[in-house]
Amino acid sequence: MTNWSLSPHPFLRATNGPVVLAVLDGMGIGVPDEGNAIWRAKTPILDHLSQHALQTVLKAHGKSVGLPTEQDMGNSEVGHNALGAGRVFNQGATLVDEAIRSGRLFQCEAWKHVISHGTVHFIGLLSDGNVHSHQAHLHAMLRAAKNADIKRARVHILLDGRDVPKCSALEYVDALEQVLTELGGDYAIASGGGRMVTTMDRYEADWSVVARGWDAHVHAKGRRFPSARAAIETMRDEEPGIIDQYLPAFVIEPCSPIHDGDGVIFFNFRGDRSIEISRAFEEGDSFQGFDRGRKPNVRYAGMMQYDGDLRLPSQYLVSPPTIDQTMGEYLAYNKVTQWACSETQKYGHVTYFWNGNRSGYIDQNTETYLEIPSDNIPFDQAPAMKAADITQAAIQAIQSGTQFLRMNYANGDMVGHTGNLEATIQAVETVDQSLSKLMEATQKANGILIVTSDHGNADEMLLRDKTGAFVPDEIDGWQACTSHSCNPVPLYIVGAPPGVKLADGGGLANVAATTLACLGYAAPDDYATSLLIQT
Question: What are the catalytic residues?
C-alpha cells in the first residue's frame, strides 16, 4: 500500500502563490552559431533569466531518460515521463532491444498469434531515429518470420525525415530492400508515405492522416509505383524541396491489400502516434474516426501496448514500462489543485505522459486539464501556433488560485521539425513573448516560475558533418536538421526564497522533486533529489 502523504520540506516553506512550470518544448542549449534558432532569435526574457534567475542545465537524452545509449536523443514522450514521474524508467527502445536480444519477443503469445497463418504485414516508421521505432527491430522481426517459415510478408513503410535527416528515406529503403533480398521468397514493400501525412496522427488532430494510411496499407488504394525507390524519387522530382515526412502516400505494384485472416504488426514502440491506427484496426462499428470501408478481420498487435488504461491494443509484443507514483498522483492525493494545458500537439504530454502513460484525470475534483486545438496547417506557416492562447489561459488559472500549473509551449519543437530556420526563429520569439506575460502574472501572484525543456531541437537547425561543419544543400544553402538534438536543456527558477541555489549535474527526473520543494514538500524517498540546495 502506497503512503501518499507528503512531508513538509526540511528548509522550504510553501509559497503563498502558485508554482508555475513552463516546458519550452524542443528548446535546448546549443552552440551559439547560425544554426541555432534560439541564439539567433530576439529573446529578452530568456536573456534575463540566464542573467538573473536561479539556473542550471539538465541532461535530457540517452540513459538520463531511460534510452539505450548516450547517442539516443531525447524526445517529448520520455522527457515528460521523467518530468512527471521524478524517476528514470527504461523506455520503449530499451525494452524492445532487450526483448529481441533475449528472444522473448518471439516467444510471446501475441507474436505466435499474429504469424499463425496468412500474410504478415508490418506497418511502422522506417528509420533509425529510435524515437518512435528503429529499423533494426523491423529487420529482426522479418528474419524471425522467415525462420518461422512464414511464406509471405509485406512491409508498409512510413518515411521519417523528422528524427533523422530530412531527405534520408532512400538510405533506409535500400537497407530494408537488402534484408528482403537476403530473405528471399515472397517478402516485399507494399505501401508507404511520409509520417506527417500518412498514418501517424496523434491526439486526434487530423484523422485524415490515418485515413490516407488506411487506404494505402489496407485497401492498396493510392498512386502506384513499381518500387518504393521509384515512388520517392518521382515525388521528389515533381516537388523539389519536399522532405520525407511530407511525401504523399503511395502503393507498390503488384498491390497487396490486407485480407481477412492476415496478421498485422504495428512496429512503432512509442504510443502517441500509434493509438489512432490501432483504434482503426481494433474498434468495431462504434469507430467514428473516418470511413474505413471494408474492415478486414485480422490478428493485430502493437510493438507495445500504447494505452494501458484503454488496453490498446489488446495484443502487444513487449510490455511497456510500469510508471507509478507520479508527482501528479501525490499532489492529487494531498489535495493540491493542479492545472495542465497545451495545444493539441502536446496536450497528451502534459497529461497522459506526465501521469505515467495514464489516460484521464487522477482526481477531477482537484485537477483541470485544458486542450487548445492546434491548427491543421504546416507549423512553419504559423509559427506562433497557440502560445498566446495557452498563456492567456494560464494567467486566468493563476488568478483563480490554482496551486500548481504546468504547460507546454510546442513551438520550438513542432516548427523546428519542419527544418524552416527562419520560421523557427519566429517560433522561439513567440515563446519568449509568452514567457514575459507568464512571468509577470506569476510574480503578481507571489508565485514561483520554473522554466525548462524536454529535449533539444530548435537549438540545432543545421546538419553538421563529422568535423562539425555545416552540410551544404544545393537548394537551401545549408542542409536543415529536422531532428531533436542531444543537447542539455535549461532549468530556471524565478521567485524562489532567498538562501537557496540550484545544484548542477541533474536530469529531467530531478525536476519533480525540485517542483515539490517549491510547493513546500519533501519528495518521496525514491525520487531523484531536488536540485534546490541551501547556499
Answer: 76
